[in-house]
């Protein structure tokens, strides 16, 4: 009995002695776990805050430029039709008749006064010959009247002829001279009428159309038989919106490109319409062009007109960016932070773009690499080097 009691007491003692050890072990494990969790939380928090806590010397370096402002010629685009600058309709100036010959074709150059077509003049020629004969008769009558007057004047002093007879012979001589003048004037008139039977070019130029054939009966009521371009000069009648027309001046340079042709032809505005169409709100600028076979009157063409110069900033194309909101650039503010600036483009050339609005010209604009920046991002601006400096 005594042995069993001792055994039970020993086991109870062992149990009582193990309980504090387990408690200390669990406390130690819990402390280590808390320490690990705290360390993990610290590291995570530091990782999240790292971009914002980056030192200033890690800010990206960007090249900036100050565009300033310069006179930039504004380009105005327009469309319109080609035409002869001075188109001359040619028709019958005289009595007309049957066309006997047509001497020119469309596309042919002619000089001033050149015969384009002739009208049969067989009857008119006979009339002219008759009038020429009447001139000869009147001239003979004048010679005879003058001779009789001279004889009478030589006999009046000798008393063979009275002064009244001399006066009658003077009147006869004067009447013969007047009839000669009338005959000559009538003959000249007929010759002028016959000359008008030839249809002639009123000036040097290019034949555009031909509307007559041999055997055709024509008169002054027949209308236009030929159409000419004086000196071959062409023009484009460019249709411009009302606001674009305000910047165009007489003498403004232009480039015209006919439809279907890749070439552009240089010209200058020589006339601007004094009125605006009330329906389309457009006006016409007439661009003078030198002759070229590709410039066919009635054809369609597009034009780029250099309008008046305006003072605008200009940037290299590398500084321009665009997205669904439109065109923009990045500028660097006073705190050296990149800021987005929306802009409106003006004239675009091969290497530069004029800024119509959005910039004053005194801003520091990021020259390139703007696509890698974010609004408000800290940067280190470096001024772009200018050639020659």
From TrEMBL:
<protein>
    <submittedName>
        <fullName>Efflux RND transporter periplasmic adaptor subunit</fullName>
    </submittedName>
</protein>
<keyword id="KW-0472">Membrane</keyword>
<dbReference type="Pfam" id="PF25989">
    <property type="entry name" value="YknX_C"/>
</dbReference>
<dbReference type="InterPro" id="IPR058647">
    <property type="entry name" value="BSH_CzcB-like"/>
</dbReference>
<keyword id="KW-1133">Transmembrane helix</keyword>
<comment type="similarity">
    <text>Belongs to the membrane fusion protein (MFP) (TC 8.A.1) family.</text>
</comment>
<feature type="transmembrane region" description="Helical">
    <location>
        <begin position="26"/>
        <end position="44"/>
    </location>
</feature>
<feature type="domain" description="CzcB-like barrel-sandwich hybrid">
    <location>
        <begin position="96"/>
        <end position="226"/>
    </location>
</feature>
<dbReference type="Pfam" id="PF25973">
    <property type="entry name" value="BSH_CzcB"/>
</dbReference>
<dbReference type="InterPro" id="IPR058637">
    <property type="entry name" value="YknX-like_C"/>
</dbReference>
<dbReference type="Pfam" id="PF25954">
    <property type="entry name" value="Beta-barrel_RND_2"/>
</dbReference>
<feature type="domain" description="CusB-like beta-barrel">
    <location>
        <begin position="237"/>
        <end position="307"/>
    </location>
</feature>
<dbReference type="InterPro" id="IPR006143">
    <property type="entry name" value="RND_pump_MFP"/>
</dbReference>
<dbReference type="InterPro" id="IPR058792">
    <property type="entry name" value="Beta-barrel_RND_2"/>
</dbReference>
<feature type="domain" description="YknX-like C-terminal permuted SH3-like">
    <location>
        <begin position="315"/>
        <end position="380"/>
    </location>
</feature>
<keyword id="KW-0812">Transmembrane</keyword>
